[in-house]
Amino acid sequence: MSQSNCDLHIHSDYSDGASTVWKIVERAAKLRLDVIAIADHFWPSLGSRRGGMKLIEERRRLLREMNSVSSRLRILDATEVDINADGTLAPIAGGTEQFDLTIGSLHWGCDSTTWASTVKKAAERGKIHILGHFDGYLSNYRQEDGRIVARALAKSNVAVELSTRYRPVHNDFLEAARDAGCVFSLGSDAHWTSNVGNVEEQVMLAEALDLPLLDPSHL
Ligand SMILES: [Zn+2]
Ligand SMILES: [Zn+2]
């Protein structure tokens, strides 16, 4: 398994993605990916009007079935949860512990200082594995805030996502996170089948900045 041969942030039609799980898996298999994470939002996280145990369990059964028939590809049962302004996560039926992987993301605009205190609190709560699209909603960036976030993420073993949909703008944060000891994850944030696995640029970015990639076999 190669750590660069995966896509750990994909949405299906169980939330706001356009593709069925089957179509996603078909594309990932065609690309010969090793690991994918189907990371749907569930109500009340933004991006989904639907949630509840019934839906989550139905999706889980389907993912297990797909896993059992796919020989090479490993499919992770993941979720993307909103980080609230106080650093808590949006509630999710059954809790986050039931998932192989939890991505925590800010889906509201904020400045650098608010971002730092919110993400630090979210990391310290120990519920997320990956910080999704870290600067996707950031209005400005200050290096001292970046260092606070980098230290908090490293301490709580939260990986920093290199997003395709929200291309990182603040490479100096990536360097600060690397120096603090963080690992990095690859995520297309695909909402369409054709975007699944589109992480080549992010792999190049990781190589250029010498960013160590998350090893999904530890999940
Ligand atoms: Zn998101
Ligand atoms: Zn997403």
What is the CATH superfamily? Metal-dependent hydrolases
How much is the radius of gyration in Å? 16 Å
Beta strand count? 7
Strand order of the largest sheet: 1-2-3-4-5-6-7
User: How many DSSP H or I helices?
Assistant: 6
Helix content: 25-40%
CATH-assigned fold name: TIM Barrel
Q: N-to-C SSE series?
A: EHEHEEHEHEHEH
* Ligands, ions, cofactors: zinc ion
CATH architecture: Alpha-Beta Barrel
Distance N to C terminus: 14 Å
Approximate strand percentage: 15-25%
Largest sheet: 7 strands, parallel
Give the assembly state of these chains: single chain
The average pLDDT value, as a whole number, equals 96
Low-confidence stretches: none
Number of domains: 1
CATH class: Alpha Beta
Which class of secondary structure composition applies to the elements? alpha/beta
Envelope shape: globular
